[in-house]
Amino acid sequence: MISPLCKICMTVMQKIGSESHAVIGKEADARKCKTKNKDGNMFDSVDGTAYNHEQGQRARKLFAAVVLAALDDAIADDKKYGNGPEQIARWARSRDGREVLSCAGIDPNERVVSGLMQFVAAGVRTSVALSREESERRMAALQDAEAA
Predict the structure, then answer these.
(1) What is the DSSP string of 83-100?
(2) What is the pTM of this model?
């Protein structure tokens, strides 16, 4: 049976794949088209490159959200069953996990896997860890530790 996270990953990859084919086709059309704008400059290929860059950034953010969801699932499993760090390590080392991490702009190496395991072991949900209040609380605790 395929886990729900793997189903999400496959759906995301299928959508990104179909969008990238459409983008590649538009870029090829932009390269073929030699039309000039009213100033006489050719910006079609520059527009195509900018469009591709924006699409890539959106795709990277989407895969980063999948990584955050995997972390949240592992934290929930850690609280429920006590095997969260092992589960996130198994996922990150799997083929799907490496693919998702790469698409999110994260190099899937052992240092990253150990960092993911430490994050899950800490037990702080990603939404809390990314919130402003939590970062301010951590900074205040760090400054208090340095002052002491």
Answers:
(1) -HHHHHHHHHHSHHHHHH
(2) 0.65
* pLDDT tens-digit map of 46-84: 677 878 889 999 999 999 999 999 999 999 999 999 999
Nearest to 129 by CA among 144, 121, 114, 119: 119
| Token pair recorded at residue 15 | 């959508």
Cβ atoms of 9 and 100 within 8 Å: the answer is yes
Say if residues 72 and 117 touch (Cβ distance below 8 Å). Answer: no
Is-contact 123 75, C-beta < 8 A?
A: yes
Indicate the residue type of 61. Answer: K
Q: Minimal CA–CA distance to 52: which of 21, 80, 74, 82?
A: 21
**Alpha-helical runs (H) found in the chain:** 4-32, 44-80, 84-93, 95-103, 110-122, 126-129, 132-147
Tell me if 60 sits within 8 A of 104, measured CB to CB: yes
Q: Which residue has the tokens 């100033």?
A: 39
Q: Which residue has the tokens 């009213």?
A: 38
